[in-house]
Every structure is written in C-alpha cells, then in structure tokens.
C-alpha cells in the first residue's frame, strides 16, 4: 500500500516538521542518497523520496522508531584534523610529587581518542625537553585543525603570567628556564592557523613573591606576545592565588606554596581512580554530553564548584562560533 495514503494527517504533519539531522538519519536507514542542504522543508523531501522508492507505512514507522535510538551529534564544523596534546608533570625532582597527573592524562586520552582525536601524551619531561617537543609539534599541526592542550602538574603565577612548572623546577629562585608559560604555548599555536584552540591548565595558581624570584620577574619583559585567530578557549581549574585539588585519601605533603598535595607511596597506585583530580573527573564525565565546547566547559566548571573541595574554575573565550569536540574531521561521518 502507498506510504502517503496510509499515514494519518497527524503522522504526515509530524514528518514535515523533522529537522535536517533527523531526515538524514532516516534517509541513511532507508539507504537513500539525499542531500537536504538545498531545501527549507527537509521532511517533505524525505517523504517524497521514501514514497518514490516504494516504502510502505510500516517500513517508515520502523525507520522512525529506529531513528530514536540513534545518538545524533550536531556538527558545527569539519576540521582538517583533531589533535590533543596532554602534558603530565608528577615526578618532580625538588617539588612535592603529585599522584594524579599521569592517571588523569591517561583517562582523558582514552576519552578523546573515542572522539576521533590524535592524542600525544607527554609525561615528566624536563623544561628544555618539553619546549623542544612542543616546538616540533607546532610545526606539524595542520591548518584548519582543532587543537586540545591539557596540562596537569604544579603551576604558579607572577604578574598575571601563568607558569607551568616542569619537573626540574627548584623550590626557590625559579627561572624562566624551569617553566613553560601559557604565552609560549599560545604563541606557538598562532602560526598553525588552527580553527579551534582549547587550552586547559589543571594546576595551582599561587602568586610567587617577586623578591624571592627576581630572575623570573626580570624575564617577564621578554614574555611572548601572541594573537589567536578564530576560536580560543582557555580554562583554569582554579582562580588566581588558589589551589587545585587532587581527590585521594593517601599520604600528603606540602607544595612550594605551602598547600597540601598528595604524594604516591609504595602500594598507593590502586587507590587512584581514573579522573582523580576534581577537574578531570568532571571533564571526562562531561565529554559524553552532546554540547559545544564552550557550553561543555561551563558544565564542567559548575560540577567543580560543587565538588568536595570547592574551587572556582575560570574560562576565557575569544570567538563566538560554536565548535564541538564531536565535530568530525573532513570526510568522516557525524553520527556515533
């Protein structure tokens, strides 16, 4: 029997209200090669094609029921590539060792790989080594790509400049050679001409004393300047002058800024769960949500603010175009 003759008026009107994404799912289930970008009435076009191919009402209803079980991912853009660089510093030579950065980066790597990212994890590198590796990576990141950079480890701040402290950092008289600055990363990405940059720093942001670190203060005049085009989101897991927390019930010690942190002891490995830092715990959970990256980070920050150890993350955004970590690279499908 004819498809259109055996649908009620309400069922047909409902079909006419389908979104383009809904129509694409049903067309795919019916093995129809249709594009809906050329019409403002995708539902009407879908029904005409189903009718012409001889599908009946029962088959259409089966396609419709199956389509409800398909997770639709809104595609905002199709980048050339999706690259994630995850940096974990935990085995410090002089500062207190941290328990969770390596575990957190491993958990985050697994989640991002499921979203189609090429993931590179850098663990416990000296400052000179980390800078050299990052420079090489920035040289090969394709234009028009998404770049997701995450850092977990000790950090600090001086005159609003954020420093990622590498494993060879001393406890006093810190110099720029012991650190990676936020500016260094963003300056390196500037030449890549990427479509989206997400930089997340899960670290303490305690303010250092100028008098105790004169060489670091002197180096601020030579800090890199950068210009980011398109879409940039920078997130800090905590506010300025505040600590970022690991969630563990094991031996603890004191950091360079006199805040409590957690240190691995023999036999403690089993006590670490994936996503052990408050921030990464929420981030890995929220990566399953179908949200643009700005809205996703808002959700993550709301979760962190309500965590056991309250901390208030910060998000800085440049560019208003919506982009999602689910966005497929060019040539990939958009349903997962």
TrEMBL record:
It holds the Pfam family Peptidase_C14. Residues 80-205 form the Caspase family p20 domain. It comes from the Eukaryota. PROSITE patterns: CASPASE_P20 (PS50208). GO terms for molecular function: cysteine-type endopeptidase activity. InterPro entries: Caspase-like_dom_sf, Caspase-related_regulators, Pept_C14_caspase, Pept_C14_p20. One of its GO terms (biological process) is proteolysis. Gene3D superfamilies: 3.40.50.1460. PANTHER family: MUCOSA ASSOCIATED LYMPHOID TISSUE LYMPHOMA TRANSLOCATION PROTEIN 1/PARACASPASE, MUCOSA-ASSOCIATED LYMPHOID TISSUE LYMPHOMA TRANSLOCATION PROTEIN 1. This is Caspase family p20 domain-containing protein.
């Amino acid at each position: 029997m004819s498809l259109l003759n055996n649908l009620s008026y309400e069922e047909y009107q409902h079909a006419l209200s389908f979104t383009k994404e809904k129509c694409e799912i049903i067309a795919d289930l019916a093995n129809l090669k249709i594009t809906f970008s050329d019409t403002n009435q995708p539902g009407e076009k879908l029904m005409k094609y189903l009718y012409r191919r001889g599908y009946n009402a029962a088959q259409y209803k089966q396609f419709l029921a199956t389509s409800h079980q398909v997770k639709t991912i809104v595609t905002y853009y199709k980048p050339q590539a999706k690259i994630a660089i995850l940096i974990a510093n935990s085995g410090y030579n002089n500062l207190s060792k941290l328990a969770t950065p390596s575990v957190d980066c491993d958990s985050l790597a697994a989640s991002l790989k499921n979203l189609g990212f090429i993931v590179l994890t850098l663990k416990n590198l000296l400052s000179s080594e980390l800078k050299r590796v990052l420079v090489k990576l920035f040289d090969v990141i394709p234009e028009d790509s998404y770049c997701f950079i995450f850092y977990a480890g000790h950090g600090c701040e001086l005159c609003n400049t954020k420093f990622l402290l590498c494993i060879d950092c001393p406890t006093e008289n810190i110099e720029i050679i012991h650190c990676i600055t936020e500016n260094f990363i963003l300056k390196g990405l500037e030449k890549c001409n990427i479509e989206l940059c997400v930089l997340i720093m899960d670290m303490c942001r305690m303010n250092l004393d100028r008098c105790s670190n004169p060489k670091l203060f002197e180096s601020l005049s030579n800090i890199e300047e950068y210009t980011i085009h398109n879409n940039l989101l920078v997130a800090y897991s905590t506010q300025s002058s505040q600590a970022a927390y690991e969630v563990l019930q094991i031996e603890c010690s004191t950091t360079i800024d006199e805040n409590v942190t957690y240190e691995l002891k023999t036999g403690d490995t089993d006590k670490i769960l994936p996503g052990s830092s408050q921030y990464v715990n929420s981030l890995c959970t929220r990566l399953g949500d179908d949200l643009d990256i700005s809205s996703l980070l808002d959700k993550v920050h709301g979760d962190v603010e309500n965590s056991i150890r309250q901390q208030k993350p910060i998000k800085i955004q440049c560019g208003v175009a919506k982009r999602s970590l689910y966005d497929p690279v060019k040539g990939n499908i958009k349903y997962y």
